[in-house]
Design brief:
about 100 residues; 4 helices; mainly alpha
Length: about 100
């Protein structure tokens, strides 16, 4: 089983301002992750949303508290050492992932 993890911070604010927000009469954005701690500040900054934007947060119908477990494994490395930390995670992930789930 191959496992791939990647992260690439993207700031689309300028592109969205020029290509979408200035040209459209309205837009609806939906996602379970648009707000953080009940606020839309990060979304507004990263997506370049205009000041006149209206936000509405709707409570999730999902029972996240009982649907999953959050486990932080003990790693025998310094998380400040990115090479050691990455190697420890690469070794640990296949051991903790249930191959029968998440398909």
């Amino acid at each position: 089983m191959d496992i791939g993890i990647s992260c690439s911070p993207v700031l689309a604010a300028i592109t969205l301002q020029e290509s979408l927000w200035q040209r459209c009469a309205g837009a609806v954005l939906t996602s379970a992750t648009l707000s953080a701690l009940g606020q839309f500040d990060v979304l507004q900054m990263r997506a370049g949303l205009p000041p006149r934007t209206q936000y509405h947060r709707i409570a999730s119908p999902f029972d996240y508290a009982n649907a999953a477990s959050f486990i932080v494994p003990k790693l025998n490395c310094d998380p400040g050492n990115s090479a050691q930390h990455t190697e420890a995670i690469v070794e640990m992930l296949p051991k903790v992932l249930d191959k029968r789930k998440g398909r």
